[in-house]
Amino acid sequence: MFEGVVSQVLAGLLGRYVKGIQKEQLKIGIWNEEINLENVELILEAFDYLQLPFALKTGRIGKLSIKIPWKKLGWDPIIIVIEDVFVCAYPREDSEWGSESLGKRELAGKLAKLNAIELAKFSRRVTDNQTGQSLLSYMSAKILDNIQVSIQNVHIIYVESHNDQGSFIFGLVFNSLSMQTDTQKQSFAMSLMARSRQDEVNKKINISNVGIYCQQLEEQQNLNDVGALTDAQSNFSLGLAHPRDDYLINPFCVTVSVLANNSGKRDGVPQYDMTAELTALVLSIDEIQLQQILNLCDHFTICALRTKYGRYRPPESFLSKRHKGWQIMWWQYAKDSIMADVKRRLKKTSWRFLGKRLEYRRKYVNLYRTKLELLQKGQLVSKDILQKLETLDKECDIDDIVSYRTIAEQRLQDLSVKSTKDNFSSPGSPRTDEPSAGAGRGWLNWLSLGMLGAGGTADTSSFAGVVSEDIIKDIYEGTEFHPVSSAENHLTKENYYSLRLSIPQILTTVTSRFGMKLIDGMFTGLGTEYKIWDDSATILAWLDSLEITNPLNKNKVLLAEKCSTGDGLGAPVISIQVDFLKSNENSEASTRVVVQEFNVIYEPELFFNLLHIYDLFSSFQFQHDRVLSSLNRFDNFGTRLLSKLEVHVCEPKETSLGFKDSPFRHKATII
Length: 671
Hints:
Low-confidence stretches: 188-197, 237-242, 429-440, 454-458, 489-493, 652-671
Distance between the termini: 57 Å
Helix content: 25-40%
Radius of gyration: 29 Å
Number of helices: 18
Largest sheet: 16 strands, mixed
């Protein structure tokens, strides 16, 4: 029944992310309808699959409470209460960019992606169609409909250190987050004869007093004393109502309405519809904070490179002291990084690597097929097989692994069909393809863990996503899932997702390091909307009015107001529409920008303030700019020019928006 899914998801979630929990005690607590945990620590290694550019040093939860009304499950919600959450992050140490640490995070990220692919494939097999209702969508909506969440007092900080500018803390805080059923919309949906409560889920998420700040640490505070620093910040998080003057974004509130339509027939209604409304935003930033934000962006850019090449980089301690031979180590680092890129490109195109890929393919297919056979028979998979598969997972690309697994599954299916025919031809022979009684509902554990992400489906001790007719029937019974029949499926319209964001007003102030206001801005009626279909996507953005003021004399130097139209709605000052087409992967996005008339007044004082702000940006060099600047040291003009052209050619920037198997792509080369 659905209770099994709930218990498995909760047990998997808590056991994976919360430290010091015994699985057996956890199961007992879940079935006793209430779990209460206090002062628990998070398992930081569980977040490796995210491949974050920083390291999580501390994660604590003051109180965690879960109430499960088993007797009224489906009618009364599961109530989850979390209080006093504190997370502290630091830049990664030099040792964390080594081969072992990088390989561990890369493998976790790869397994998480593979699990997402396996879950999607599993859902399609259970549903037996590509366009009908997805099992995962149904499960997500069902869990969403049966859950109520309350989170209070959250404080997340990132500590950054610069030798010449001191140490800074970037923080995110909010007082409370609650997720409950939107009773008004739910009642309206239930009143309609065309839909029932099971077809539509309406949730409202309220987040209060969200703030982002940038604080400079005092000199006497020890940056390396993580315990003392986190205790000080954690104590502050217990009194978030306390005013502070270093907010980048003053506390604001957010209301998010979520509609999940798990009906098989869309009829133009989005499968997921999310609308976020923010209260007025007040942004204030000074020169020092702006410099720190630029430094942080540059640091994350370097982290992306270190993720790719950090395993070849010499130790920082050796390079900083410039021991004998440090130049040679730099050249060795450059050579190893370049050769790694060359090998990565040749891996799929060179005859030299063809034999190795064929050998990987043969080994992986045989090992994975053996694993599936053992799981189908209800037998344990040996550690040797799992270790060999993990080694191949590290070596092979994701596309190759998916291909190898598909081949293994197809061969196993062909063997099963042949075995079935042989059994029918020999009535007296016993059947050998029956699943063992010990296997139980292995798919339940596999599916519930996989829905958590983070490599959950890697725990395939009793199931590996292989679907038979008996398993499909068991899934329908256990999850109460009833997919759209093939006869009705041709009437189902394509999947459609809608996301909207609206901000009534944004007040912006930029000040100098001495506290003098440089410029004031007011943006009114800011909104954006994303519409996503199976074969296309559209992004809309608009701004109703814009006003820039000189803070010295309060004169409006730029004024752009909403223009009147015949329909009475008015036209925004700026509107942008970007269309992506999925039919042609090589086609670029089409962009349409409309700008209405606006008035500008020249004032010398404000002009000089704008130049000062521009100098802050222009004087800062990101990593890419520093590379180009270093090439200016070549005396020969031709050498400088060719070197810079090589940098531009070797670093094309491509962004892609992917849905299912074919991504939308918007290509642009940045020079």
